[in-house]
Design brief:
single chain; alpha/beta; Rossmann fold; 4-stranded antiparallel beta sheet
Amino acid sequence: MSSSEHCPVIECIDLSKTFDEGPREVEVLKGFDFKVEAGERVAIVGKSGSGKTTLLNMLGGLDQPTKGWVKVAGQDFSTLNATQRGRLRNQYIGFVYQFHHLLAEFTALENVAMPFLIRGETKAVAAQAAKEILDRVGLNHREDHKPGELSGGERQRVALARALVTRPACVLADEPTGNLDSHTADSIQQLMLSLNHELAISFIIVTHDLKMASDATRIFEMEDGLLSEVSSEGPSSGQ
């Protein structure tokens, strides 16, 4: 997209978010700047309740900031209506969650093809793209299986394939290995790392796993509503 060639993949300025809790307001995000360039791997760490998931929802346009703005590939979410925001997400952003959120009644292939079908592509085009990315994550032999027939690690690989199938500019991952045993978590981490290198897709990963964070090109810590880049000593303890 020529209009976005020289833009950060994701950029926010003075990002703030306040929630009403009864008679008082709680400021979860307190106004900070943040941007991610093409091909970066960024980890965001912080204590539970520090606002990491809220930030990820802001960056993906799933929630709107109280103040400030978020741009994806140079386009400001605040200038778009709900339909336009959905199209922008579908084109540029993939999501991976701690719980895979696969549709139980559909096969792995059908789940992965869904973003292309939502985009309006034909079933044939969507199925071919889904087959290719499932092969990339080592699950071509499981494409006809439904989520209930897959292991936890396989389900998360399907979720990752679904996030990557449209070749987005950036994948937002919220605790992607938090529900997996250590061996499977390591496998998913290495897969994400290799796909970042091979496909030049940026990753923004919210994680409590300091091992996963250590593989990032940059590490940020969310604390007291502010996001700051971590020094070479690493994030503070207690994450």
